[in-house]
Design brief:
The complex is a heterodimer of chains A (about 140) and B (about 120). With about 140 residues, chain A is mainly beta. Chain A is built from 1 helix and 8 strands, in the order H-E-E-E-E-E-E-E-E. In chain A, strands 1-2-8-7 form a 4-stranded antiparallel β-sheet, with no helix packed on it. With about 120 residues, chain B is mostly beta strands. Chain B has a 4-stranded antiparallel β-sheet, with no helix packed on it. Chain B has a 4-stranded antiparallel β-sheet with strand order 2-3-9-8, with no helix packed on it. About 5% of the residues of chain B have low confidence. The chains are: A mainly beta (about 140), B mainly beta (about 120).
């Protein structure tokens, strides 16, 4: 069922796809865990008061995602199930790019975070984990006497 | 249905965009297209069929705290876009779309006359 059908495709689209594959393979010896292009895609940002992590994991059950922090490492793990096409034998898969299966991604966090006040929310297919920094570590203005 | 790169004359739409991953499955009744558009709220998603061109466009919206500095970004553009060319036997009038949790599901049926018809054989 996972063959690529003989589909009338545009040459430019093919080139585009090839280019994307090349881009994904970026360096020829990627990291053993896939490096970039893993699922879910992660964006990480920081503010003086918190560390913000965005995991782009559309169409998953948030209850089945495991988010944990251990020894300064945040792990996001779970499984993405893609509903099988209406299993009639006449169905042909023309494009099959979406991720399916188990996933796990880790992010190492800075030392000054407060792991007791982590918040996580799932909206529009994005898991947003916000980890505040410890109050003591936040920049404080020191007045000069 | 085939894919094409966005080459519209309209220069304003040439903004860089991410290519969302899709699954396209065809069976006797039509085509089902699923696309991953995480971070796009429903009101920022635009699905358009114009003549034989299907365009999927979405603008990302993330709630970012003020003054956030990005330290690592794999989703580096605020926009998704992908364009497909639909073949003639598809009924563009009856495209149905569902969207939830960043997943778009489009169902494009085939025209009635393009549906397979079983031909009865009579024995005389």
């Amino acid at each position: 069922m996972f063959y690529r059908a003989l589909f009338p495709r545009d040459l430019f689209a093919e080139l585009d796809r090839l280019q994307r594959l090349l881009h994904q393979a970026d360096d020829l010896s990627p990291s053993i865990r896939g490096g970039r292009g893993g699922f879910p895609a992660l964006n990480v940002g920081s503010t003086p008061a918190s560390v913000e992590i965005y995991a782009f994991a559309p169409g998953i059950d948030p209850a089945a995602v495991e988010v944990q922090i251990e020894k300064g490492v945040l792990t996001i793990a779970g499984e993405r199930k893609i509903e099988a096409p209406t299993s009639s034998d006449k169905a042909a898969v023309h494009i099959d790019e979406r991720f399916a299966g188990r996933f796990r991604r880790v992010v190492s966090l800075p030392d000054d975070i407060d792991t007791d006040a982590v918040s996580a929310q799932y909206r529009d297919g994005v898991l947003h984990v916000s980890i505040p920094r410890r109050a003591a570590a936040q920049p404080r203005r020191i007045s000069i006497q | 249905m085939s894919e094409k790169t966005a080459k519209t004359a309209d220069a304003s739409r040439e903004e860089a965009a991410l290519l969302p991953p899709v699954d396209v499955i065809e069976d006797a009744s039509g085509i089902v297209l699923c696309a991953d558009l995480p971070g796009v709220p429903k009101e920022n998603l635009h699905v358009q069929v114009e003549a034989d061109t299907l365009t999927i466009e979405g603008e990302l919206r993330l709630d970012m705290p003020e003054g956030m500095e990005s330290t690592h970004a794999e989703i580096s553009l605020p926009r998704y876009r992908r364009v497909f060319t639909l073949s003639k036997e598809l009924d563009t009038e009856k495209v149905a779309a569902e969207f939830g949790q960043g997943v778009l599901k489009l169902t494009i049926p085939k025209l009635a006359h393009a549906q397979p018809k079983k031909i009865e054989i009579r024995v005389e």
